[in-house]
Amino acid sequence: MLLINHVFRCVLLLLLAITARAQTTTDASQFVTAMQLGKSFYALSEKTAVRTTLYQALVDAVGDSSAQALMQEHLARAVEQRQDVWNDNLLSAYRAHLTDAQLLSIANQGKASPHAAVFLESRKRVSDDMQVMSADLLLETVAEGLNAALSAASASEPESESTQP
Q1: Residue from 127, 126, 41, 49 nearest 83 by CA
Q2: Which of 4, 66, 117, 128 could form a disulfide with 62 if both were Cys (CB 3.0 to 4.6 A apart)?
Q3: What is the pTM of this model?
């Protein structure tokens, strides 16, 4: 869970550095998308996946480079299927600590927003909320991606020839 907290903190600091927006956000529900906050989902999933016994089984089956490629391919699919839920959870976490007006201001003005400091101050609480709201989602995503990668690895292995008596 500390990993989730660390990743969120890094992402939030990087995103505040972005001040120019190609489009103005007019709906607070678009805050996560406008700030690209949901992009951390894949990185967090990958960091979690490589620490599992399922990933080690994949490495044992196909080797390091093939395991990494298979994991990335199948994890990306699993993340894509759940990205909207992750983003909704993230928006809920922010809305618990910031008003829609503050979210809009931050989305449109970045660190120039008068609410940027509040945004930064809320990051620990948002991260804690996300750990509670999204831990199961993260684990399900990782398990699905790795199980799919293991299945793909098994399917691509040549069948051993059986010896007939």
Answers
A1: 41
A2: 66
A3: 0.78
